[in-house]
Design goal:
Strand order of the largest sheet of chain A: 8-9-10-1-11-19-12
Number of domains of chain B: 2
Radius of gyration of chain A: 24 Å
Strand content of chain B: under 5%
Distance between the termini of chain B: 13 Å
Distance between the termini of chain A: 32 Å
Oligomer: heterodimer
Shape of chain A: globular
Number of helices of chain A: 17
Helix content of chain A: 25-40%
Structural class of chain A: alpha+beta
């Protein structure tokens, strides 16, 4: 009896602290540490998702209201923007007039200029020497900027660049007043001030970020329904799953695929949605690799059974036969729709001169893990098996993600680098400028991300046209043309699109996953 | 004793220097680049070179080592590359957290090991001996991160009695059950290896001492069992302490996997993260501090052993 009482007491004590937090949403992230909270979040897109949009706004935000298609842009701190009719390089942003920073000060054009100085003006006293360079991908197109009046600013790009609004969506606006009070960017991260729907209450390095509702958020439809949002970094997927199942968190990012059936069995909700992402091989198309032959590249694309890979992933992915899925307006109408057709693949390979007597051998660089890379080892073994069926021998060169990233920045065939026929990785394409940066021939490393040095006149024509078109409908048409040419030229082995799985406690209500790397936490509430 | 102590302390200086050099070199000869983990994948190389220069990573290695060591000796470990914040405070908090976990794990392991080992040694070749040795063998053989996951499944997921991860409610640590219960599973998991090792050591020592002539003499003189046990403890203590001291040091740094399983924010997690992010300054500082703990605990063990058993001073 005593033991029974002891156990009861222990379990009551064990339960108590978790149940006192009714209106607190606790999320386990996959990052190894809390993302930096000072307005230049690290940890890639996950950093933007958790330490970017909840705390801050950019001039242009992502639209999470329509979740039926890929998320698009929506006015943020700018109510509207347009191109100067006299100069295609000059963008005019009209600012919202009723916005308060978390510290109570009002946001005006001076603050936007001050924030751009933080990123780009090396002579400004508050230039962020450490973090600003890490955002050059987003700010590198900006040549100059100026205040027009208290609520209007102009930003000028180096060349006409029609997709500046996508890039500027990652430039978060922080409060100059708070920075002046604190005086340095490292300390600023402990009590930052933005304009977003959540206010930072407390940052505990490596443990949590605690956010509270911003009652004065300018967009009344997005004042958070929960009082508090707690974000915890838990890099190990088993630990995340255990934390969810033991009730320590309400929501986990990316459960391990093999834990999904048991989570579903225990009553948890698995949320998946397509978003612009592709898990693929970037192929070396220089003369040094057999993959410079388009027939060979297409043959590989016909050789793999994508449905089997999806099954391996417990349906947390969908087959990829392009960078975008066929129902995306950017997909276009390519000639080659890559089905699983090993006979056709073998035939194409033999036309290209490969067969049992002369097997095709490939060396492929592969990361062990990393943002967006899903479960690379298991997936790659399956790809290897399918390619073996058509007589292709794949040697994987497995490396840590940081090493693979470095390899991707050194163009294929560069002297001194070991020979590689492809690099495997997962890549986001929600921002259409990614297509340009990965496939235009002007974007060979070190300038851009076209690692395999693929060059094709048609792709170049459309991509170069794309960045000079300002009409959204026309942009879609040209994107589709560029994309269909990319599918037909197959500079990649397209494998799957990630579905961005997350597991939620059944108490979580109101979450409608956007087709984006970023998500809206303001509409979520917890039902007791 | 004073001379011996000073000599032992003097030895730690060259050891410390060698350790710092090895830490520095190990980190620099491994592949990968810290800058890659902080910039987006398609960042131009010239920007990366500019950031490398900001961090001084473009300088010759001996220069980097010299600068690093002179700053580290003044307690300035520099800034984390991935976070931009000073390493010192993070490392201090992580070391405290790990020390707490390691102290609990080691104490638990020590107590379990002494009980099991003492019983096994006293009842040599009986079923008690076999049972205790079986448990010890399990302790040293089973991968402790695996055991950690099993404990989580049983006590957190199934029974919902104990938390599965973290260090407790947010806010500062307090010595109450709300916080202490977060220590239970990781400490038990961590205690397994020292428990196994101590069991085997104590068993060997006890059965050896019990067979010595002077124990027979003591018995012959009519000393009670409790008195004999005191003699056994006194003779077994130096070796057991040595084993335990080194175990405590290795628990402090060797709990990377256990800290990862339980998301315990100690030095193991700090190292784990630093490795994944190629955060060289954090990696160097953490390894250095852990290595110094090892050297320091070794010194303490040596001195304690000598104090307990003056014969050691001559060896």
């Amino acid at each position: 009896m005593k033991m029974f009482l002891g156990l009861t007491l222990a379990s009551t004590l064990a339960f108590s602290p978790f149940h006192a937090l009714a209106s607190t949403l606790r999320i386990a992230m996959t990052t190894t540490d809390v993302p930096t909270t000072g307005g230049i979040p690290d940890n890639g897109s996950e950093g933007g998702r958790f330490a970017g949009y909840p705390i801050y706004d950019a001039l242009v935000n992502w639209d999470f209201t329509d979740t039926s298609g890929p998320a698009g842009l929506t006015p943020g701190l700018a109510t509207s923007w347009s191109i100067d009719p006299d100069d295609e390089r000059r963008w005019i942003f009209n600012l919202r007039e009723d916005v308060l920073f978390h510290d109570g000060t009002s946001m005006t054009a001076d603050d936007i200029i001050w924030n751009l100085d933080r990123h780009l003006n090396e002579n400004a006293p508050h230039y962020d020497r450490v973090q600003a360079p890490t955002y050059r991908t987003y700010t590198g197109q900006i040549a100059s900027y100026e205040k027009i009046d208290d609520f209007t600013v102009a930003i000028v790009t180096h060349e006409p660049f029609s997709m500046l609004d996508y890039l500027i969506s990652r430039v978060f606006i922080v409060s100059p007043t708070r920075f002046e009070e604190i005086g340095d960017w490292v300390q600023f991260q402990s009590s930052p001030s933005g304009t977003g729907p959540f206010i930072v209450e407390k940052v505990t390095p490596r443990t949590s970020i605690e956010l509270v509702r911003n009652e004065n958020y300018w967009d009344e439809t997005r004042i958070p329904k929960v009082e508090k949002l707690v974000l915890m970094p838990i890099p190990d997927s088993n630990t995340r799953t255990a934390a969810l199942r033991s009730g320590q968190v309400d929501w986990i990012e990316v459960p391990a695929p093999d834990s999904i059936p048991s989570l579903v069995g225990a009553g948890f909700n698995i949320v998946t949605k397509p978003y612009p992402h592709v898990w693929s091989w970037s192929m070396n198309t220089t003369d040094e690799s057999p993959l410079n032959d388009v027939q060979v590249r297409r043959a590989l694309n016909y050789a793999i059974d994508r449905d089997a890979i999806v099954e391996l992933l417990n349906n947390t992915a969908i087959p990829a036969i392009g960078i975008y899925p066929p129902d995306n307006p950017y997909f276009g109408s390519p000639e080659h729709i890559y089905s699983y057709d090993p006979e056709r693949a073998t035939e194409m390979l033999s036309e290209a001169g490969y067969g049992p007597d002369n097997p095709l051998r490939l060396v492929v660089n592969l990361p062990t893990a990393g943002s967006g890379n899903m479960v690379p080892l298991a997936m790659s073994e399956l790809v290897q098996l399918y390619l073996a069926e058509i007589g292709v021998v794949v040697d994987y060169e497995v490396a840590e993600w940081g090493v693979v990233l470095r390899n991707m920045r050194t163009a294929a065939g560069t002297a001194g680098e070991p020979h590689r026929d492809a690099i495997n990785h997962g890549q986001p394409f929600g921002d259409p400028t990614n297509l340009f940066r990965s496939h235009a021939s002007s974007q060979f490393p070190p300038v851009g991300g076209n690692w395999g040095l693929h060059e094709h006149s048609e792709i170049d024509r459309y991509l170069n046209e794309l960045i000079t078109i300002f009409d959204p409908q026309e942009q879609i048409e040209v994107m589709a043309k560029a994309h269909q040419a990319i599918v037909d030229q197959a500079p990649r082995l397209f494998v799957v699109h990630d579905l961005n799985p997350r597991a939620l406690s059944p108490k979580i209500m109101g979450f409608d996953q956007a087709q984006s790397w970023y998500q809206d936490f303001t509409q979520v509430w917890i039902e007791e | 004793m004073l001379e011996y102590t000073l000599k032992r302390i003097a030895y730690t200086i060259p050891i410390g220097l060698a350790v710092s050099l090895v830490c520095f070199m190990l980190v620099h000869i491994s592949p990968g680049d810290p800058i890659d983990s902080i910039v987006p994948p398609d960042t131009p190389t010239e920007v990366i070179e500019q950031i490398r220069a900001e961090y001084g990573l473009d300088r010759p290695l001996p220069v980097q080592y010299g600068l690093w060591l002179s700053r580290a000796l003044q307690g300035d470990f520099g800034e984390s590359i991935s976070k931009g914040r000073p390493i010192g405070p993070d490392l201090w908090v992580a070391t405290k957290n790990s020390l707490m976990l390691a102290a609990f794990g080691a104490t638990l392991g020590f107590v379990i090991g002494c009980v099991l080992g003492g019983a096994a040694g006293a009842f040599r070749d009986s079923w008690i001996d076999k049972l205790c040795l079986g448990i010890a063998l399990f302790g040293v053989s089973v991968p402790h991160y695996w055991l950690g996951m099993v404990l989580v499944i049983i006590f957190s997921v199934q029974l919902n009695l104990l938390p599965s991860m973290g260090m407790g409610p947010t806010g500062p640590w307090a010595w109450d059950w709300d916080h202490l219960r977060f220590l239970v599973l990781p400490a038990v998991t961590l205690s397994l290896i020292p428990a196994g090792l101590v069991t085997r050591t104590v068993r060997g020592l006890v059965s050896d001492i019990m067979g010595q002539d002077y124990i027979t003499t003591l018995r012959g003189k009519g000393l009670r069992t409790s008195g004999i046990v005191l003699h056994v403890i006194k003779n077994a203590a130096p070796t057991t302490l040595a084993v335990m001291g080194l175990q405590l040091a290795s628990l402090l740094g060797g709990s990377i996997l256990v800290e990862a399983v339980f998301a315990w924010p100690g030095t193991g997690m700090l190292l784990n993260n630093a490795i994944f992010q190629r955060d060289l300054p954090v990696l160097q500082a953490t390894t250095l501090v852990l290595a110094f703990f090892f050297v320091f605990l070794n010194l303490i063990v040596d001195l304690a052993q000598t104090a307990l058993d003056p014969r050691m001073r001559r060896t």
